[in-house]
Each structure stands twice: as structure tokens, then as C-alpha cells.
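# nightly structure sweep
# worker-07 picked up a monomer target from the shared queue
# config: single-sequence mode, recycle default, output format = C-alpha cells
# input follows
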Amino acid sequence: MASSALPPLLPKVDAILVLDGDGNRLAGKYYGDFMKTPSAAATEGADAADNAAAAQSVEQLRSSFERQLQSKIGGIAAKPDAAEVVTVLGKTAVFCGGSPAGQGGGGDVRVVHVGPAGESELVLAHLAEGMYEALSNLMGGTTDRAMVLDNLELVFLLIDEHCDGGIILETDGQKLAGSVLLRDEQEPTMGHGMEGQGGGMPGQAPPMQSSGGMGGLGMGMGGGDMTIGQALMQARNQIMANLNQT
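# output follows
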């Protein structure tokens, strides 16, 4: 396929997590093989007890990763437009939100994007900042734990509008929030799928045009400068066009 050279332009996202101030997962998804047991017990020939044990071990693995993540980001408050970066188990984790050490209250929820160690920190930061902006808009500017728990359906919709199967669909915060509200009106009774943290909407929204951003940060792409958001959108559109031609 002609698209074999295009995937490096797209970020590889292994997980998207929404954590409270204590590191508890409120919502999120894990993608691909990240944080799955090397040998899954849930095979066709496995009985119900084996399947339950496999599911429990996967959840324990993910909970352990999230505890290690919390040990790195706890007490750090990342500004909505200035994501912070840490490394956990060889993975790059970029997050927005949180409260400073010793301060509780509002604004304690963090949006975390996890990618491979070689993934661009700037790209991951752009993704985290876009989703955090959308979350803040959806929550009326209050991103504390209680507000997020009261509006989990919107948070699940936001994750699906933002990313599908590890592929980023949209990065612009305002457009993400608008798409979530539109889907919420059109599909008021839609349930949640069970993946990763025990939440996530099945399906995906149509591709959205993105204005990108990150404070005017540009990336040289071909004939001119292009924002990170525009570069991601161009790469995704090219891949989709090539797939449609096959």
C-alpha cells in the first residue's frame, strides 16, 4: 500500500486516562497490547474461571501502572496550555491539570496521554492540551472529581471523539466539545462499551477538520510551516484516501 510511509506522521497513543487527584481512574482507554498480559488466558478453550482470572490480572496490571504514574505526577499541577512530561516504565506520559501538593479542591482531575518512549513529547502535549480544553468546556470550566463523575457519559464520548483505536481523530478543544454535545443530543440512550477502565463508547464520529494550535507552534512540513494539528489531520486524511482507493 502507498500509505506505508505515512503512519510515522501520526502519533502512537497507547492509553488515554482521566485521573483524579489521588490517581484513581475515572475514565480512560488502553489501546493495542499495552498493559495486557503476555499470554492471555481468555482463549476460546478457556472456561469462565480462566476468563475471569485473565480479566482480573489485566486490571491489576493497569492499576499497578497507574499507581506508578501517580507517584510521578502527584502534586504537580500542569497548566491547560503547558502539559508536563514524565516517563513511566519506558513510556512517555504527558498530562494537563491537577492541583499542587497540599492543595485539594477544584481542578484536581488530570488528562493523561501515554505513548511510546520515542513518541514526540510536543505532539503528545498537543493532544493532552486539546482534550483537556474540551473537558474543561464540557464541565463548565470546573474539572474537579465530582463534576467529572456527574458527567461521565460526556467524558466517554469525548474520548471516542478524540481517539479511536489509538488513532487521533480530532485535537481542537472547541470542536471536540461541540462534537460531544452533538452526539449527546443525537444518541441520548447509547450505552458504554467495556474496554480498559470499564468505559468507552463503541463506534466513532466522522473525521473532523482541525485547526490545530498549541500557541502557534509550527512544524516544517513540505512547502511551508504547518501546525501540529494540521500535520496530524493531513496525515490521517491521506491514509483514509489511500484506504478508500484499495
